[in-house]
Amino acid sequence: MIAITLPDGSVKEFEAGASPMDVAMSISEGLARNVISASYNGNTVETSTPLTEDGSLVLYTWRDEDGKKAFWHSSAHILAQALEEMYPGVKLTIGPAIERGFYYDVDFGDTTVSEKDLPAIENKMLEIARGKHTFSIRSSSKADALDFYQKQGNEYKVELIEALEDGTITFCDHDTFTDLCRGGHIPNTGIVKAVKLMSIAGAYWRGDENKPQLTRIYGITFPKQKELKEYLQLLEEAKKRDHRKLGKELELFTFSQKVGQGLPLWLPKGAALRDRLESFLKKAQKKAGYEMVVTPHIGQKELYVTSGHYAKYGEDSFQPIKTPNADEEFMLKPMNCPHHCEIYNSKPWSYKDLPKRFAEFGTVYRYEQSGELHGLTRVRGFTQDDAHIFCTPDQLDSEFKKVIDLVLYVFGSLGFENFTAQVSIRDMEKPEKYIGDVENWEKAEQAIINAAEAKGLDYVIESGEAAFYGPKLDFMVKDALGRSWQLGTIQVDYNLPERFELQYKGSDNEMHRPVMIHRAPFGSMERFIAILLEHTGGNFPLWLMPEQASILSLSEKYEKYGEKVLTLLENDEIRALVDHRSETIGKKIREAEMNKIPYMLIVGEQEEKDGTVSVRKHGEGDIGTMTVEAFAKLVQEEVKQTIKEFKV
Prior knowledge:
The protein is an alpha+beta fold.
């Protein structure tokens, strides 16, 4: 008999050789019908895998991320089988599950496959799926695996197998198809009920542009046709909310090939939007005791060698800048933290001076591959709302909690209510990825967990997601379309203070190392604005809108009154504009709606006579006639409800 521990802590005994599906059936037939994948002692297994030793079992359904991963990985196998049957002689390479769906990279040789071929491939996949073929894993010797693919002439699979150790190689079989695979599948193909192949793209083998170019087919599948329909509707809504489209329509930002890829240019309305976000955070930071600093856009290469950034990212960064002095090299700033360490080092400190909180909206530069650039979410030059707190070890807990409060204030003021906190720790199996000693890492990781628990955050722990110099608390925010984004981040760092030899004099008159907290509630201004655009569809909170009201006169006769209304609103710090164009009132209203201006104030003979305005609200229509003073109060009250005072 073996003892199997379930996620709720309960323990069940089974005969050795029982499968995860047997365990599910012992709990309920309903659960067994829905289980599609499992993990045992932290390793992904098939639902039919015999369990031969005591351990912990987790059963996954379609509702679980790991269940979806198995579903989509299995669907990649179905796609591969369909391609082999439809295009004999193709060479399959890799086909992983991704965040939404899966892809398979294929060498089609001289055959050209295009978007018009996708419906036929989808039909073939559904035909295979309806066969309800069981997925099964079998082991293979390295020699047999190599022989199998050498006979096929598939040099890609041969290359993969050559890098594997004998005794670790497995294949997955279903129907007449077999593929090199580590495992993690649904019970059978029949669970796949809906298929959509999304697109075709080129992809270099192993991401190396010096290697052959393959054809990558992206797809997604679902256990119900209804879910596919809902997903496609969501994609259509996402297209409408695409920040690149909205940014152009609302005249916020642009790009120029002459300036360079991944380097956004902020237009007047976009610059004003950024300025309001910066002012909002600066005001809260001032209350929280931060001091603003400014650092240059470049630094000597030696600065980033000292920090460790050059060793970790140097090859992937913009290359050093040469000067007429042969011994001198500078780099575009990839991070603000080394500069802030040198600001701290500019004078001696006592424990009585700490904590020191240095904040900067600092622009940094990182060389992203051109194929990875995407609007504002992936750029080569971006501005971080960066700050670094230098504190004593005793102050770490309270300082970290204060930063959490600041992040939650930012999210609350901007309508991000749905989020999860992620404690990102090191990968214990890859210590070479990190700097610093184990003891400091353990202290830093525990400090983050303690603070997250004390603040009552809903958090998960993710191994391998830490920064190279320290663990962090990342905030994973869900937008209006249910998509997850990593926004604010807080990091604990014992290592940079060591590398930069930072010190303070303690109460014992001895010199000590401070602890460093890195934090950025927005993350980067560019990415944050992109996500905010897509989350709100361009309907920003009223306090953030470029124009809060548009004054629309019924004819030229009432423009003077419109200007008077504008002056009164500006006196109350309400952002408005007068539409002077000689267009019909209907056209002015339609264009104001398209530009997502929150309020339209219509002025004509009666309004001028009564000293009032007729008010329309974006997306709602007429809400009545009122005095200018009453409208100003309406706006001020709405702003107050959205953006509250930050309390320290």
